[in-house]
Structure formats: C-alpha cells, structure tokens
Write a structure and sequence with these properties.
Residues 10-237 form the ABC transporter domain. 28% of the residues lie in helices and 26% in strands. The protein has 239 residues and is α/β, with parallel strands linked by helices.
Length: 239
C-alpha cells in the first residue's frame, strides 16, 4: 500500500520493463514501486536513458510493462484490455510532450477542440485559452507560435478533457531558461486552479524544488523517493 496517509491516486508496484532480445536486451525498469497522492506534484528526475519516459508511458497506458501493476484512482490499468486502456487515456489522462505534437494545419483553438470532442463534459475551451494566455493566438497555426505558446496550447489540449492526471514528459526540454520558467509557472497555476495530480519527468534537478514529491531514477531503479515539505514557487527557481 501507499506510504502516504491518504489513498494514492497513482500506485506503481514492482514495475519492470525491457526492450530487445538476446544480446541486445536492455532492462529499462527494474522492480519500480512508488505512489503519488491525489492532487500531488511528483517530479521524476534522472539522466537520459534512466527509464523516466518509459515509466511515464506505462502510467499513461501507452506502454505495457513486463511485470508489476499500476493502479490509478483505484483502477488497475495494467489489467485493462486495449479498449479499456483507450477509455482510460480518454477519460482520465492528459499528456504534455516535449515536442508538443500539435496538428500543424489546425489553429490553436481547433487543436484543443479536437480533444474536447472526445469527452462528454469538456472544460470551456475559450475560458481555458484565456487562462493560459492564448486569447489573441487562438486563430494562429502552430508554426506561427513561439515554443512557449505551442507548449501552452499542448497544456490546454491536455486539460480540456477535465483530466484528473496530467503527465508531462520533459515539458521544458525544448525551451530556453526564461520560457521554461514561464511554463513551470503555468503548470503551477494549472495545478492550483484545477487540482490535477501532476507527474512530470525531467533531467533538470532544479525543477525538483517545486515538487511535493521527488523520485530519482538511475539505470531503471528508484534511488530516491522523498517528500518535499517546503516546495518553492516556479518564479523562485534558478538554474
């Protein structure tokens, strides 16, 4: 069970994953176990190749582990059928990727609207764009936006479903320092406003200062899992 006093929103137990066979077999995750509280901000940090993105993809139902289990909001997603996983991703998970993955020939508003149409009760698109500072850019195409604006659009797209779990894979990895800080402030504000459980992977140790929980992966194993009793505001980070 979770080490936290409250029931875990995300609970990972004994997760293992490898790729390849024979001499090319690579063990990416080794017996990984941890939990994240509802509404928690968990930052998973580690060097490139440490297994961070593989772990995030498993939590998001994009990749299947070889062993172990993942429970999200009490549901064992590792036991779901392909159709069940599709429903899980649609109804509960918002993804924010390093390279945005926006549809290039759709405007900002249309990129968000496409995702909104997947669920019965999406958030108000215009309100979301306003809150994320995209009002004046709603009719622009991704190529007309800065990197930070594209990432804000990606966050709007992830949130519009009303997702209770937001998974961020190196969301500042393609941004300069100043824009990265702005992006972290946006995520901080999103967490405060919507109460979404946030799990972010990064190679940047400085970002761990704003988390409630810090997990460090090294060669596919957890070497640190600690609570941060005094998280710092994004605007206070320095790197």
């Amino acid at each position: 069970m979770s080490a936290h006093a409250t029931p875990a929103h995300v609970r990972v137990e004994g997760l293992s994953r490898h790729f390849g066979t024979g001499e090319s077999r690579v063990e990416v995750l080794h017996d990984v176990s941890f939990s994240v509280a509802p509404g928690g901000r968990c930052v998973i940090v580690g060097a490139s190749g440490s297994g961070k993105s593989t772990l995030l993809n498993a939590i998001g139902g994009l990749d299947s582990p070889d062993a172990g289990s993942i429970h999200v909001a009490g549901q064992e997603i590792t036991a779901l059928s392909p159709r069940g996983l599709t429903r899980y991703r649609r109804d509960h998970v918002g993804f924010v990727f390093q390279f945005y993955n926006l549809v290039p020939d759709l405007t900002v508003r249309e990129n968000v609207q496409v995702t909104a149409q997947l669920v019965r009760r999406p958030l108000d698109i215009d309100d979301l764009l306003h809150h994320l500072g995209l009002d004046e850019h709603r009719h622009k195409f991704p190529a007309q936006l800065s990197g930070g604006q594209q990432q804000r659009c990606a966050i709007a797209r992830a949130l519009v479903k009303g997702s209770d779990l937001l998974l961020c894979d190196e969301p500042t990895g393609a941004l300069d320092r100043h824009t990265s800080q702005q992006m972290l402030e946006v995520l901080e504000d999103v967490h405060r406003r919507y109460g979404t459980t946030l799990v972010m992977v990064t190679h940047n140790e400085a970002i761990t200062a704003l988390a409630d929980q810090v997990i460090e992966l090294r060669d596919g194993r957890i070497v640190r899992d600690e609570m941060n009793t005094h998280p710092r505001a994004a605007e206070e980070l320095d790197w």
